[in-house]
Amino acid sequence: MSESTGASYAAAGVDIEAGDRAVELMKEWVKKASRPEVVGGLGGFAGLFDASALARYRRPLLASATDGVGTKVDIARRMGVYDTVGHDLVGMVVDDLVVCGAEPLFMTDYICVGKVHPERVAALVKGIAEGCALAGCALVGGETAEHPGLLGADDFDVAGAGTGVVEADQVLGADRIRTGDAVIAMASSGLHSNGYSLVRHVLFDRAGWALDREVPELGRTLGEELLEPTRIYSLDCLALTRTTEVHAFSHITGGGLANNLARVIPEDLRAVVDRSAWTPGAIFDLVGKLGSVERLELEKTLNMGVGMMAVVPAGSVDAALATLADRGVDAWVSGEITDRTAEDTEAVTLTGDYAS
């Protein structure tokens, strides 16, 4: 009679040694995403941040946000490129924080995989750390979880949470917006991290395109376009608040431009945005044409070339545009704030046609 083999964690599909190697590989990247307030290093049960740094605030408010990258991770998996979606994750989190005027302080991440491939996990963390450095915040910790039997060996997902701080009397938002304010749009780097379920359905399921397809309109392969990292605006927005008066920001993510801008518009006002002020990138037109997607459906799903919007007094427009230009951010006046009448059913109205 053969000797029975007892169950083990490894037999269940969890490789602790691979997890330990992944931690060792990622440490060098986490060190590059730090701030003076970070206490200790990677490996503790919790990340530590010296809150005495907030003593300079009269009444500090902590802001918190959490997000993921959505089905864009499928593109990274299929292409075998793992060091870009971390930028997307950071952008989704810190740019939600900065909308209220908060300076991002630190982030933590959560990486879930079907099987730990140490180099892949380290590449994911590398991207997150690089994103944190671009955002001016620290990566103080995270978690890598292996879920064999629930995820395939090459499947993964990422999520993160961030904390920021803002002076209580400097919180930005709807209560600051006034009639006559200008709406400034800041260009996106592409699709960012929203609407990929629609994009994948159109480009892969309906059109049958491959990721290595060279697309003349894009000037590169489809895969390279779809993996273009989300632009991180946090330091640009904070610079804007230091150089001129800003009433509100709106991070254009899931739901599109109108729905996200509406979140910061007071009930008695509306934003009128002129589509002719800009030309969306070629990827938006491709998705629309290949999928026969109506414009309104595109606009409520994709960012249409705008990743962040700022609402500023009319007298601050020149200074705002100059600051953004100095920082290499393509920006333009896209609309204005007007009084809302009884006939205005929407907080945001899009007018005209996109410039060709």
Automatic annotation (TrEMBL):
PANTHER family: TRIFUNCTIONAL PURINE BIOSYNTHETIC PROTEIN ADENOSINE-3, TRIFUNCTIONAL PURINE BIOSYNTHETIC PROTEIN ADENOSINE-3-RELATED. Belongs to the AIR synthase family. Residues 179-342 form the PurM-like C-terminal domain. Keywords: ATP-binding, Cytoplasm, Ligase, Nucleotide-binding, Purine biosynthesis. It is an enzyme of class 6 (ligase). It comes from the Bacteria. It comes from Streptomyces himastatinicus ATCC 53653. It holds the Pfam family AIRS. The keyword Cytoplasm applies. It catalyses: 2-formamido-N(1)-(5-O-phospho-beta-D-ribosyl)acetamidine + ATP = 5-amino-1-(5-phospho-beta-D-ribosyl)imidazole + ADP + phosphate + H(+). Residues 61-166 form the PurM-like N-terminal domain. Gene3D superfamilies: PurM-like C-terminal domain, PurM-like, N-terminal domain. It is found in: Cytoplasm. GO terms for cellular component: cytosol. GO terms for biological process: 'de novo' IMP biosynthetic process; adenine biosynthetic process. This is Phosphoribosylformylglycinamidine cyclo-ligase. The keyword Cytoplasm applies. Pathway: Purine metabolism; IMP biosynthesis via de novo pathway; 5-amino-1-(5-phospho-D-ribosyl)imidazole from N(2)-formyl-N(1)-(5-phospho-D-ribosyl)glycinamide: step 2/2. HAMAP family: AIRS. InterPro entries: PurM-like_C_dom, PurM-like_C_sf, PurM-like_N, PurM-like_N_sf, PurM_cligase. Its EC number is 6.3.3.1. One of its GO terms (molecular function) is ATP binding.
